[in-house]
Amino acid sequence: MKHLLEASLQVPRALLLGTLRTMAKLMRLLTFGRLKYSRPVEGNALYMSLGEKLWYGYKFYGNPIREPERGKNIREHFLNNPPEGFWDANASLGANTLHGANATNASHGANAVSCNEVSRASVSNGANAANTSNAAPKGLPSITIAFAGDILPCPDFPQTPSGHLIEVINFFKTADIRCANLESPVLASKPICIPPEDILAPPDMNNSPEAIKYLLQGVSDGITIFSTANNHAMDQGVEGVVTTLDFLDELGVLHVGTARSSTERDAFLMVEKRPCAGNFVARCENSSPFRIAFLSWTFSLNCHSLPVDQEYLANTLRLNLPGVDISPIAAQVREARRRGAEAVVLFLHWGLEDESFPLASQIDTAHRLAECGVDIICGNHPHALQPAERYVWQEKNSTDGFLRESLIIYALGDFLTPQPHLGMSAISATMEVTLVRLILQPLHSNESFPRSDGRVVIYDVKTKQYDRSE
Q1: Per-residue pLDDT tens digits for 80-112
Q2: CB neighbour list of residue 416: distance below 8 Å, 6 or more residues apart
Q3: Please, are residues 465 and 429 in contact by the beta-carbon 8 Å criterion?
Q4: Which helix (H) or strand (E) holds 146?
Q5: What range defines the domain where residue 13 resides?
Q6: Mean pLDDT of the chain, nearest integer
Q7: Among 26, 34, 60, 23, which residue's Cα sits nearest to residue 45?
Q8: Please, what is the end-to-end C-alpha distance for the chain in angstroms?
Q9: How far apart are CA 121 and CA 104, in angstroms?
Q10: How far apart are the C-alpha atoms of 426 and 422, rounded to whole Å?
Q11: What is the CATH number of the domain that holds 177?
């Protein structure tokens, strides 16, 4: 009787799925391409209206959105602000203050591929590209951080890396710190659950410990930090959050975005890098010349809600809403600076799936967050490669004329685990960012070492794109 009931349910389900796919195709044909532009919706499953659900289904079934919102000049914005030219904004100041470097060098990053150009042009031609930048200036302490996209559950990774996986290894492994978004819980007690290929299936994902170990030890030469705040963080409930963090702790992998207690949430992640030793230590209390804070927030938990007395489980904020109150993130940034962070990296899980550009409201929010003191924003979630930008701004009440520069990465796509049923998931990128500390000239000839003025800046950005559709 049970089997008869299951079989009877499969017929209407199959008919419904077929109807949805047909409707998506008809919508594209009958609107004559007018649905190719992005729309300013929130994309939060918990608050979706019927109209937004239909729009989501339209994109899901073979209609990825490659054009930005109309009338917002978004494409022009990214063409005019590519993620290159860092270090040049203060060249006139640096000529008299920097030690051991050519502060007027305007070529660094000139050959870097704009993520806008990658996401827009390379989808069709599949070109791989990376810049060939110089190392950090002689005499300046530096650190490199590599950023990758979403890591989704995958039933089987290739045992012998080849093709684009080798490119990932070669590009990724040279960085001092390597970061990616862990898009699902990791529970050995439950079967692996991969992203569904239809919108009627529940998206409660789960990854396997074996897959994560393989990623850490084989493919990427050791991811050192996982961002864990994302819309799938609560897919396996409280147990999923706690067990995943316990598992990462056992492996010695740093993480930020979800927590087992309010104390752990409030501590966030402070990484110390010792330039002389070439390594880094987590949450070191000693004063260090290189201290970097890592924060992580998500715009949604899908249809899940945090228990009333356990809001600390995941950092959530409705980031896709226009004019969203960013004070909770700003408070963490201020606390990070108070604890001695010389640079702040913020992971944001936000944006709209299957789209090539961020919303205009996202760009505004990113700029406001940068002006709170965030040096690097690394976004993900769209399962598509989106642009990055160099944002130049000046601190309020600043009297030294120093211009701040922030790198904003809106989305890097799916890292290593593309979803064939999504139109743009095969295209992704990784980015490597070099941070340097500005150094003042010695005041006296008997001073052996130049002194730090406490300012860490972005020196260079490299981009590497991957096309796994071939």
Answers
A1: 999 988 876 665 444 333 333 333 232 233 223
A2: 148, 151, 154, 157, 165, 168, 215, 219, 220
A3: yes
A4: strand 142-151
A5: 2-60
A6: 79
A7: 60
A8: 46
A9: 32
A10: 8
A11: 3.60.21
Question: Is 69 part of any domain?
Answer: no
Strands 427-440 and 451-467: antiparallel
pLDDT at position 371: 96
Does 65 map to a domain? no
Is 252 found in the same domain as 373? yes
* pLDDT tens for each residue of 261-295: 999 999 989 998 765 333 444 433 333 457 999 99
Residue 269 CB-half CA count within 13 A: 25
In contact, 244 and 185? CB cutoff 8 Å: yes
Residues 187 and 248 in one domain: yes
Beta-carbon contacts of residue 411 (< 8 Å; ≥ 6 apart): 149, 351, 358, 379, 380, 381, 382, 384, 385, 386
| 406, β-bridge pairs | 391
Mind listing the pLDDT tens digit for each residue in 113-172? 333 343 433 222 233 333 334 456 666 788 899 999 999 887 666 555 566 667 777 788
Cα distances (angstroms) measured from residue 303 to each of 45, 54, 200, 202, 300: 6, 17, 14, 10, 8
Torsion region of 314: left, alpha or beta (phi above 0 gives left; psi -120 to 50 gives alpha): beta
Show which of 32, 60, 88 is a domain's final residue: 60
CA distance 383 to 353: 6
Q: Is residue 250 part of a domain?
A: yes
C-alpha–C-alpha distance, residues 50 and 35, integer Å: 17
Residue 80 CB partners (closer than 8 Å, separation 6+): none
Backbone angles phi, psi at 428, to 5 degrees: -150, 175
pLDDT of residue 264: 97
CA angle 293, 434, 167 (to 5 degrees): 110
Residue 187 has which token pair?
A: 């529970």
Mean pLDDT of 189-215: 83
Examine the fold and report which residue of 38, 60, 82 is the final residue of a domain before the chain moves on: 60
Residue 66 has pLDDT above 90, yes or no: yes
**Residue 220 · residue 168 · CB < 8 Å:** yes
Taking residue 148's Cβ as centre, other Cβ atoms within 10 Å add up to 26
Integer angstrom CA distances of residue 340 from 4, 52, 153, 248, 273? 65, 43, 36, 26, 13
Q: Is there a single domain that holds both residue 36 and residue 149? A: no
Q: Using one digit for the tens of pLDDT, what is the confidence trace for 348-371?
A: 999 999 999 999 999 999 999 999
